[in-house]
Amino acid sequence: MGFYANYIVPYLVNLAMRNRELKPFRERVIGEAKGRVLEVGIGSGLNLALYPMQVREIVGLEPSPRLLTMAGEAARPDSMDVTFVEGSAEAIPLEANSIDTVVTTWTLCTIPDVVRALLEMRRVLKTSGELLFVEHGLAPEENIRRWQNRLNPIWKRIAGGCHLNRPIEDLIEKAGFDITEVETGYIKGPKPMTFLYRGRARGVE
């Protein structure tokens, strides 16, 4: 199990995240980041090359040592200031009100206590800060939801804890965020796995 969790799952996750269908969503989300950025679930560092000049620092949080090693290899020596932190999103090791932008790209599906993690993201965000996200999750059609619920127990086991059926908007709002922009829809592929949410949110004062 240790070999599977430490090597096979990170490899499969990295392969899936390189899907060309996902790149425009990455570019849109990452292109809106600014200031000091916390990327939750930085993975193998696929987003690092997409950050714009208005980003002065990136803190990459990731629980997988293997993926953190890959992210370190992806960071160019001449790129902006990047710090990699091995840790859990449920207990972010940063001070409150210290981050301008929190970024999540296909991350909320795998965090065990996702509401606690979102509360932590809200804690570290400055009052003027934003959460930028693109995630997959619960579809609007009842027949697709039924398939998501049926497949989810098996999917979690083979996909490193990924959930197909999380209601992304509801979870973000439950953690005290105000969603200021959201777009939803399917990309190519089986509908239970391909309903996306892309948007931005601010902490409710």
How would you characterize this protein structure?
It contains 6 helices and 7 strands, in the order H-H-E-E-H-E-E-H-E-H-H-E-E. The protein has helices at residues 2-17, 23-30, 65-74, 114-124, 142-158, 168-174, and strands at 35-40, 55-62, 81-86, 99-105, 125-136, 177-186, 195-203. By secondary structure, the chain is an alpha/beta fold. The termini are far apart.
Strand content: 25-35%
**Radius of gyration of CA atoms, rounded to a whole number:** 16 Å
Oligomer, anyone?
single chain
End-to-end C-alpha gap? 44 Å
Q: From N to C, what is the helix and strand string?
A: HHEEHEEHEHHEE
Structural class: alpha/beta
Overall residue-averaged pLDDT value: 89
Main-sheet strand order equals 3-2-1-4-5-7-6
In this structure, how is the largest beta sheet organized? Answer: 7 strands, mixed
The 3D shape can be described as globular
Low-confidence stretches: 1-18
Strand element count = 7
Helical stretch tally: 6
Helical residue percent? 25-40%
Highlighted features:
single chain, 205 residues, alpha/beta, 7-stranded mixed sheet, 7 strands, 34% helix, 28% strand, globular, disordered N terminus
Describe the structure concisely:
Helix content is 34%, strand content 28%.
Draw up the topology in text.
Layout (H helix, E strand, L loop, with lengths): L1 H16 L5 H8 L4 E6 L14 E8 L2 H10 L6 E6 L12 E7 L8 H11 E12 L5 H17 L9 H7 L2 E10 L8 E9 L2
Parallel strand pairs: 1-2, 1-4, 2-3, 4-5
Antiparallel strand pairs: 5-7, 6-7
